[in-house]
Design a protein that fits this description.
Elements (H helix, E strand, L loop, with lengths): L1 H19 L4 E3 L4 E3 L2 H10 L2 H7 L5 H9 L38 E2 L12 E2 L7 H4 L11 H25 L4 H12 L7 H12 L1 H9 L2 H15 L4
Antiparallel strand pairs: 1-2, 3-4
Helix pairs in contact: 1-3, 2-3, 4-6, 7-8, 7-9, 8-9, 8-10
Length: about 240
Amino acid sequence: MKYRYDYLKSKYAVWLKLKNKTGNLYNPITNTFQMTDEEWKAEAKLNKMVEKLRNAPLLYPDLCTQLFDGATSTGAASWGPSSTLPHPTEVFTTQDYEDIEMVDTPPQMDIPASASTIPPPTSASHASGDSSGRSKNKRGKRNAPTGTLDDDIREVGKEIMKAAQAFAQTNNLDKEMDECIEKLKGLEWGDSDPKYITALMLFAENAGNRKIWLRLESSTCELWVKSAGKYFGLLG
């Protein structure tokens, strides 16, 4: 579990460095970098994690920013998303992840609201390359079972959501988020219910999801969350 969390942390550090680097065009809608092959190769020479980011974009960048930067982005020695320097308290290496097969799921983009249909979650970007190609082990090292990896990734997602909730509670949720949480609690699913966790992921993903949630009827909310839960792999 710690390896999965550190992997995400390291990948986020690379994403943030490239995002803030002068001359690199980051597209927040598709969550991709418009860089040439030469630029990617140059960055990869400095950090092997760059190749992993190129092949599979960072999941939930806004949520990762809250999780990894929010707790240290205030104070005299603060460091936040606007900084172009590496995080002063974190040192990331790639050798810890050489033996681990990481599976990324494409992130979700804003979903247009509709009064007559249930908007399904859609993808904002697609990981380049075939995932089966990335799973080839050139050094003959043993990969963990796919089922175990999927379970670990889901657990990391749950831990991220718990951390995001704690961060939000200490930094005053805005009115819209308050209304979403209040409506969610009114459904009485319980905070350990996969539907509850899925709803929180939708709220954290973007403002469009929150607006949709507030406009849907309670019965429709459950259908929408179940659809998203299947997409995220949290619901069968």
